[in-house]
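Dear colleagues,

As part of the handover before I leave the project, I'm documenting each prediction I ran so the next person doesn't have to rerun anything. This entry is a single chain, and its sequence is reproduced below.
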Amino acid sequence: MKSRNRYSTSVIKLSQDIVLMSVLLIMSDHSAKMSSQACLSHNHQVTPTLESRSLNLDRRRILQQCFGKFGCYSVDHPWFSSHRPLSFFPKSPKVMKSYFFLYTRHNPIHLNLLKLEDARSVQMSHFDPSKMTFILTHGYFEHGHAAWLQRMKTELLVNGDYNVIILDWLTGSGPPYSQATANTRLIGVMGGHLMAFLKTHANLDLYKVHCIGHSLGAHVCGYLGSYLKNDLQLELGRITGLDPAEPNFEFTDPLVRLDPSDAYFVDVIHTDGNPITKMGLGLFQPSGHLDFYPNGGKVMYGCDAPMMKTLEQEHGNMAAAFRRVVGCNHFRAYEYFIESINSKCPFTAVECPSWEKFASGECNGCLTDGDPYSCDYMGFYAFTKLKGKRPEKENRALFILTAENEPFCAYHYRVTIKLSDTKESFIQGGDRGNFLMVLNGDNQASTRLQLNKQETFFEPGRTYHFMTTTGDLGHVHSADLIWEYALHPFNPLTWRLRSESRMFVNRVEIEQFGHKHKHTFCAQDKPFLPKKPKRVIWRPTCRENAPDPGSSFLGSLLNADPIGNAQQAINFVNPLNMNPLNGLASITGVFSGFRATMLNMGPSLRRMGLTVMRSDPVRRILESESKGPETP
């Protein structure tokens, strides 16, 4: 009976919210009409009538709710918009409690409870204002004793003698989601009250406070910093947003979501940035001074495992397997941050115009001249390169690759292969296949690494860039390069019937991200036979190639590979082979990649002087792109 009454109450409350929003819209339209009529009748001089004043007063009363010392909260614009169609008031502080659990090296297991405006609770605790203070907070439908929060707390205390405060708002984080979204505003202000109290009564330096929040908790940190800045003219030191929640936040006003103005330094890790329609839970929109997009920020390596394999890993538990499939990308953000705290491997990320350019090895990493911040560290050490200086730019996008399983951190290498432009190489011609490599370092040798992620048609005289990751190899002194020829069974243009495949290589260049050094290994224009490793070593000079001639018509056509891409798309959406949630998002990428390849064929067509029929779709694409925007 009680459960039925609670259900009826929640339904009535939701109905009241919907009726309230309808009334507000009607009143807003009526108020706008009254204002426009007043403007017309008084030569654009606005003279409010008693009726309009009464309407505005009633509108403010309906659209705003106050909670004493914690301030007033509006559900009008920008809190109500097309990106947030349902806007609720936060729950009352009498109903929704916030708890602040303090841990230090003196009490790493047993918490000290800090209470708002209670000086005795601070005095009786192990809080030390001279030390760095971390505030950790959770997201939707979680609590302050969550395993990942305890792990992060432990790693922080291993790293240094800190104050670690876990902000628990369990009573406000439950469903419905729109109500939990509204509650984050009040929870953030409550956290701001505690920081202001500690500054006043314990002389806490707010620049030594770092708030770390996951999902909705990232926006809690944002509201905490915004309250300190806008209401008290104080500034928080740093906020780290761990995959901030996307529903009700993406593309809203900066006041509504986490943004760079909320603290002296704001860094964000995006791991689940697909739209909510594709089961993405995190914000893809840049939200900080530094925005890190590991693996592109949408699908994390290791999270696209087949459904059957995930079910096997969860020992047949369907509920656990479903949670892992749906939430894996979202959870990776705090897993990366936790590992970064004490890892000897730096999570080196590189600033780049796009993920596609980074993944294809087109960005120079830390070798960019004149910009010492062209690469930075994702996670705990993201602020170290600035050396305490305020960031000059906002929304800088940095990219990084991770491993599929723990440890997630990997060492990045940008490999450049220049194929020979000798006469013998051009007579041999291009071939379709893969380049593999083993990097030999002072510490160890890498496993066999496949450089190109899908079979590619390689042409003489061209330069190819690749991104790959390994463990800590130390100084790389040589590399074993392997060529693998791969014909396409349905494409005769890739067949070699009277000759053997050979690939002539001029040189191999290897750059480790995080180190401003590039190693050049000469291959001396020697041929590489299929599946026969050949070692390349450093030499003081290598013969210089002519400039890259660009892709030929045949190369562009073969690398488009519509047959192979179609088969790949079919495999992605096959529920027995791959995760269908992540696979559906790849089909658009297949077609956009094919379109881009068609566009790249334009220069080749012009060099060859070919005339293509107007009915040819390639011609239509090329013509539409070459015209550009119309000019008046």
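The two ends are 71 Å apart (CA to CA). The chain has four domains: 23-66, 99-297+332-400, 411-540, 560-627.

All the best with the project,
I.
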